[in-house]
Amino acid sequence: MAALLFMFRDKRFVMNIITVCGLHESGHFAAMQLCGVRVREIRFSGTGIRIITRKSGAEPLVKSLFVLLSGPAVNILMYMLLKERLPDTALMSLGAGIYNLLPYSCLDGGAVLELLILGNIHERRLRLILKTARGVLVFISAVFLYIYGAEAAELFIVLALLYIRNEYLPEV
Fold it and tell me: Averaged over 11-33, what is the pLDDT?
């Protein structure tokens, strides 16, 4: 954890984070514009950026999936474009893309899975499988914590907090 706090003292690291997050959200925003989704509000917080849209009834599934996956897609594209010239920024972008594809409802990957599960005749069983998969991720991170000690602490803390937020706290 001390290493993470130390990194925030490096101005380049902080600028890379801001750039990577801004590009991610720009991907969502561009997809929304292409799909005709109207943005009502953009909220900034310590946990990220949230784009609030004006609902115009039920959105087509393909449109929603396109908007949700566009942020991680931009991160992965930026990794491919920057890996030779700016390897630190490229890796951070790849990490952000992968992180956002994790199966937690508050992240893009989890939101995609929620859309695909909703209304399915096996919805209840699929939700249980998804909850189990989230728990397995926390368990694996706990094993890493045991094996690697403090070096894996951030991973465990992030996945444990995501699990708690997803399973026990209402969507904000």
Answer: 86
Residue 22 has, within 13 A of its CA and on its CB side, a CA count of: 7
**H/E segment holding residue 104:** none
Tokens at residue 63, please?
Answer: 């449109």
Look-up of token digits 């991610």: 24
Q: What type of residue is 23?
A: L
- R_g (Cα) of the chain, nearest Å: 17
Instruction: Give Cα separations from 32 to 62, 67, 69, 112, 124 (angstroms).
Output: 12, 6, 11, 15, 30
> Each residue of 33-91: pLDDT tens digit?
898 888 888 887 666 677 777 766 667 888 889 999 999 999 999 999 999 998 888 99
- Read off φ and ψ for residue 51, nearest 5 degrees: -100, 115
84 to 14, 30, 91: CA distances (angstroms): 20, 26, 11
42: helix, coil or strand? strand
